[in-house]
Design a protein that fits this description.
Blueprint lengths: L2 E7 L3 E8 L2 E9 L9 E10 L4 E5 L6 E4 L1 E2 L1 H8 L6 H5 L5 E2 L7 E8 L8 E3 L4 E2 L3 E4 L5 E3 L6 H14 L5 E4 L8 H24 L4 E4 L4 H9 L4 E6 L2 H14 L7 E3 L6 H4 L2 H6 L5 E3 L5 E6 L4 E6 L9 H23 L3 E6 L6 H14 L7 E3 L7 E6 L6 H5 L15 H14 L1 H4 L3 E6 L1 H10 L1 H11 L2 E6 L8 E5 L4 E7 L2 E3 L3
Parallel strand pairs: 1-16, 13-14, 16-17, 20-21, 24-25
Antiparallel strand pairs: 1-2, 2-3, 4-5, 4-9, 4-15, 5-6, 7-8, 9-10, 11-12, 12-14, 18-19, 19-20, 21-23, 22-23, 24-26, 26-27, 27-28
Helix pairs in contact: 9-10
Length: 512
């Protein structure tokens, strides 16, 4: 396996990509005016407490107040931020609920655990987590956790012992995956850096008046290097000398042995083009993803869930359809796992694999899906196959998914993905004329439409328009308007210029 990290720095945006054997598996971008909020620590002011929602709205200085649950549970916060770094058995020890007794205008230190989404403000926690390269400092949780991805028992025991020696009273530490086989002096250095950071946060919080930002995570490039640049990564390629120096400076103190793997890209072709990232990013907008087997998967976003469907069109030509179905589903499971991570799909995901008859095949497909999601940083929970052949996954939402981040709602269809057909609009126009037949008789009616519709009416449906003119005793004119968008048209009474009916971007209006 060859894993690479690419960092592309532009004037207004920094983009990072993680490649696994040349295939894009993770992508992050950050604009100067839209920095990631997750991990930020604020000194906030309670605006109001809502018992019915079992939470409080806290002013942290953003356009929308953040939401803080009154029953703040540390393992919930861990699942939202660092679940992959804590064993499930260890997380069970953290069920003790901190019951917050808050009052309006009270000042409180909070951390953002989920980005604002839609009309919702940021999700907050009163538990603070400060991540370093090897450790996560938990100032308000007296606990030691070791990443469940470190499986060697003797190594786990060693790291727990090191953490126990470093830990301060009433504070806690989480030993991260990157700490495996790291010498104790390097871990101690990381701990000292985290304590300096926490002392700075505490001092700033005591001096500032709420609402105030007292800590923010580093830029996306350094954050990715901190969290994912391990011995398993073959190289980090940076196309900006300034950022290249920043990465080396960070590694000089935190992981000096990895500095030789950082390379400054100086090619003439943009780094994302050189490694095929731009082509793969364009595929993020595609609803349909083709598989090598000839099958394909489709991904559809709805308000309640993300629906993923697996299809193949070669049943009739296959002598062993169960074998083909199983192979297609196995390939689809791998691709679905990649797309979930790449697109950052979250919430409820429902996967409809092609129906299989053998239970052992169903079990292997589910195992394949879980295997390829094992490296996913976000917390996921799986169901088995339902009696309808569906698998349900819940995946933690930390921020809007990549599809939402890179797109905006279509001004024509308003999220439907489709516009009315030409024949539907033809029938709609006839109904307008029919309803106003007595009023329109002897007059001229002008139909202004976007060019494709105007051409369709005047050329392909000329006979229908002629029939309408005879039936309703009117003259009909068609005019193309380049300023109208697909699916838009207006029916106008020429004599007075009154608008009889107007369809625009899935909205209609008109006079009676």
């Amino acid at each position: 396996m060859k894993k690479e990290i690419l960092i592309n720095v532009g004037r207004f945006e920094t983009r990072t990509a993680v490649l696994d054997n040349g295939k894009l598996i993770e992508f992050y971008s950050e604009r100067l005016e839209q920095k990631n909020l997750v991990g930020r620590i604020y000194k906030g002011r309670v605006e109001n407490v809502v018992p019915g929602l079992a939470g409080a709205f806290v002013n942290i200085g953003l356009s929308k107040n953040g939401f803080l649950p009154l029953a703040d549970i540390p393992d919930k916060t861990l699942s939202q931020m660092y679940d992959s770094e804590v064993e499930e058995a260890e997380a069970d020890k953290l069920k003790e609920t901190r019951r917050l007794d808050l009052k309006p205008n009270q000042e409180i230190l909070v951390q953002v655990v989920k980005e604002p989404l839609g009309k919702k403000g940021a999700r907050l926690s009163s538990y603070i987590f400060l991540p370093g390269r090897y450790l996560v400092l938990t100032p308000s949780i007296n606990h030691i956790g070791v990443s469940r991805r470190i499986r060697d028992r003797s190594e786990r025991s060693r790291l727990r012992s090191v953490a126990s020696k470093l830990k301060k009273d009433k504070m806690g530490l989480i030993v991260r995956t990157a700490t495996e086989k790291v010498p104790e002096p390097d871990i101690k250095l990381d701990f000292e850096s985290l304590m300096e950071m926490w002392n700075s946060v505490s001092k700033l919080a005591s001096q500032e008046k709420a609402p105030a930002l007292v800590y923010e995570e580093p830029l996306v490039s350094l954050k990715l290097v901190r969290d994912q640049f391990t011995l398993g990564v073959s190289s980090v390629i940076v196309d900006s000398r300034v950022e290249y120096e920043n990465v080396l400076r960070y590694l000089r103190r935190n992981a000096p042995k990895l500095r030789s793997r950082v390379r400054l890209y100086d090619g003439k072709e943009p780094v994302f083009e050189r490694y095929g990232v731009e082509d793969e990013l364009r595929g993020v907008f595609e609803r349909k993803i083709w598989l090598k087997s000839g099958g394909f998967i489709t991904i559809d976003h709805t308000e309640a869930l993300v629906a993923i469907d697996v299809n193949t069109g070669r049943f009739s030509a296959e002598k062993q359809p169960e074998k083909l179905i199983f192979q297609t589903n196995m390939e689809a499971a791998r691709e679905i796992a990649i797309q979930i991570r790449l697109r950052d799909l979250s919430g409820l995901l429902v996967i409809d694999f092609i129906d299989m008859h053998l239970k052992e095949n169903m079990s292997m497909v589910l195992k394949e899906l879980k295997k390829y999601l094992r490296e996913d940083k976000a917390h996921t929970d799986f169901s088995g196959f339902s009696r309808f052949g569906l698998i349900e996954i819940t995946r933690e939402r930390k921020r809007p998914g990549l599809f939402v981040h890179l797109t905006e709602e279509c001004s024509v269809c308003h999220g439907l993905g489709r516009i009315p057909s030409k024949d539907y609009m033809l029938s709609e126009i006839e109904r307008v004329l029919q309803q106003r037949a007595d009023f329109l008789a002897g007059h001229t009616v002008l139909i202004k439409a976007e060019p494709h519709i105007a051409d369709f009416l005047s050329v392909q449906r000329f006979e229908e328009l002629a029939d309408w003119a005879r039936t309703y005793n009117i003259a009909i004119e068609i005019k193309a308007d380049i300023y109208l968008r697909p699916g838009e048209y207006t029916v106008i009474l020429s004599d007075t210029n009154d608008v009889l009916y107007k369809r625009e971007a899935n909205r209609v209006s008109g006079s009676g």
